[in-house]
Write a structure and sequence with these properties.
The chain is α+β, with helices and mostly antiparallel strands. It has helices spanning 14-31, 78-81, 122-137, 149-157, 186-196, 206-228, 243-254, 258-274, 280-289, 297-305; strands spanning 2-5, 38-39, 42-43, 53-58, 64-72, 98-106, 116-117, 120-121, 142-147, 164-172, 175-183.
Length: 309
């Protein structure tokens, strides 16, 4: 589903937009190796301060899986300010009905196990469709974008081929780049829908999308807290030690085979469940004072489990 975040609702969706910036950092700096400024795990540039429209793709759990940015060409934009060399001396496009698309990215880690069509993910098609349907409803006639040859092939395969190019292809950083033009027509929108098999309304209800995102964020926070919690409480020996526990410690200290170790550990484990292991320091001393003894990973794990809960 698609959510559009702009100057009118940015405050409401600030946490989702923060996830957009984190995704951009992971993709452009981490995966693609672009020379972009990343601060505190977020990729944000000067164009994000010019009230662009962020087209955000959310999965069924409300997580951000894709995004792109649309910006008017009447003011500062990347083609005019940074990629002007691609225009071969031509003046940059400037029109209230021509907007620039930049920062297109998909979280490929979340694509595993998902169905693709002709190697194009559903999220990619949905994000493209969201861009053109939003643009058309906003009175935008054309989208201009700086793309690389790989993206050019993706667009051609997904029913979204550029109708024209401006200037020429030139090396830009780690990739070659070109300037592509796409019209915001019914034919293009239907072409993308036909390719992806999308027949429904892709735009999310804002309140439902926010509730879904918050639910997922809360679940992740709880999961992280559980993962960070220690599995056992601090060691605290009990007041007394039974004769049977003393016997088990002695058997463990004398054990010379995995079978004998396992038998002693099984009995200690049973005692721990019934009355609590009352002298963990003794168990630690046994394993410390016998460095030549061979303990398997399983045995050591079981020893850790003997700590009182």
């Amino acid at each position: 589903m698609i959510l559009v975040i702009d100057a009118l609702n940015e405050a409401k969706f600030s946490k989702i937009l923060d996830e957009v910036y984190k995704l951009r950092a992971r993709v452009f700096s981490g995966r693609l190796g672009w020379e972009v400024a990343v601060e505190d795990g977020r990729e944000i540039d000067q164009y994000d301060k010019l009230n662009p429209a962020h087209i955000v793709c959310l999965d069924d759990d409300g997580e951000v899986v894709g995004c792109m940015r649309l910006l008017q060409t009447t003011g500062p934009h990347m083609l005019a300010d940074i990629f002007f060399e691609l225009l071969d001396g031509e003046a940059p496009l400037r029109s209230a009905q021509i907007w620039e698309a930049t920062r297109f990215c998909i979280d490929t880690d979340k694509l595993k196990g998902r169905e693709n069509r002709n190697s194009i993910s559903h999220y990619t098609s949905e994000l493209m469709l969201g861009c053109f349907e939003y643009a058309q409803s906003s009175g935008i006639l054309d989208i201009v974008a700086v793309i690389d040859p790989v993206m050019n092939r993706v667009m051609k395969r997904s029913g979204n081929a550029p109708y024209d190019y401006i200037g020429s292809t030139k090396p830009m950083g780690v990739v070659s780049a070109m300037t592509a033009l796409m019209d915001c027509t019914d034919e293009r929108i239907q072409s993308i829908r036909n390719f992806a098999g999308i027949t429904h309304d892709i735009f999310a209800d804002e309140d439902k999308a926010l509730a879904l995102f918050n639910k997922g964020a809360k679940a992740k926070a709880i999961a992280n807290d559980i993962a960070l919690e220690p599995k056992h409480a601090p060691l605290a020996p009990a007041a007394q030690k039974s004769d049977l526990q003393q016997y088990c410690f002695e058997q463990l200290s004398k054990a010379n085979s995995e079978k004998e170790i396992a038998a002693a550990l099984d009995l200690l484990k049973l005692l721990s469940e019934k009355i609590g292991t009352d002298d963990v320091s003794e168990l630690q001393r046994i394993t410390r004072d016998l460095p030549q003894r061979t303990f398997t990973a399983t045995s050591l794990t079981e020893m850790e489990e003997l700590r009182p809960i």
